Amino acid sequence: MHSFVTPDDAREQLRIDSDADDRWLAIWIPAVSTSIAAWLKQEWRLYLLQRDAVGEVVLDDAGVPVPVEDDAGKPIVHPAVVAATLLELASQYRYRERRGRQRGAFRCRPWLRPFQGGNGAAGRAASVDGGLMSNVPAGDLRHRVLIQQQVTTRDDDGVQTTNWVDVATVWASVEPLSAREFIQSGQTQAAVTARITIRYRAGLLPSMRLVHRGQTYNIAGLLPDKASGLEYITIPVSAGVNDGR
Fold it and tell me: Which residue among 100, 112, 119, 241 is the one 20 to 30 A from 65 at the CA level?
């Protein structure tokens, strides 16, 4: 069975921060990869091909194009095949949960037609449990945000020291408030200046702070999504006030 992308590649492109969806990825990556291979029919179409000095494709004794190999002697997957795999994974991931049930959970690309109707591995994968998918498209979560919390330690002399320590770096959507929204808030210096949206994360507290591109943001509230409260969190923040406390 083929796997044209690694789980790490998929997590990065789908903006997945936790391992909650590893089981889903373990099924969907080979399912999508195998479907694309079946759609292309000829295996050599999956790979980059060797070319001679004049740019012609090199053929073996049987007249089959010869793929380019990496240092380990494995054929190098064509970038277009990798892109198609990631595109399909992103599409199925987005429609997997509540959105998928509302709009017909299984969107069938040409390369997935052998599995149409849920009879194959991809169809079975649609029902696999895992982390809930956010209604926020992965493409909107294009910012990296660092979550920090305060930790107090005591040395041998009993002196307490409080520092901010890193909790996690997550994908997020960072949106500054418009001038109109800021004025309508009717607040002072500590007014909310932006909203940050992340996928649901257990253990997130108002006492924590967020850092984006060197800017510290204080958490003014934690607003879970209205559907289940477990898909995404919108976080109103104020920039650089009270050092996050």
Answer: 112
CA–CA separation, 25 and 29 (whole Å): 6
The domains of the chain are located at 7-125, 138-244
Query: How does DSSP assign 39-98, residue by residue?
Result: HH-SGGGGB-B-B-TTSPBPB-TTSPBPBPB-TTSPBPBPHHHHHHHHHHHHHHHHTSSH
Q: Count CA atoms closer than 13 A to 211's CA, side-chain side.
A: 12
Mutual angle of helices 22-40 and 79-94, in 10-degree steps: 130
Among residues 233, 239, 219, 223, which one has the least CA distance to residue 177? 239
Domain 138-244: assigned CATH number? 2.40.10.270
23-71 residue pLDDT tens: 889 999 999 999 899 888 889 999 999 999 998 999 999 999 999 999 9
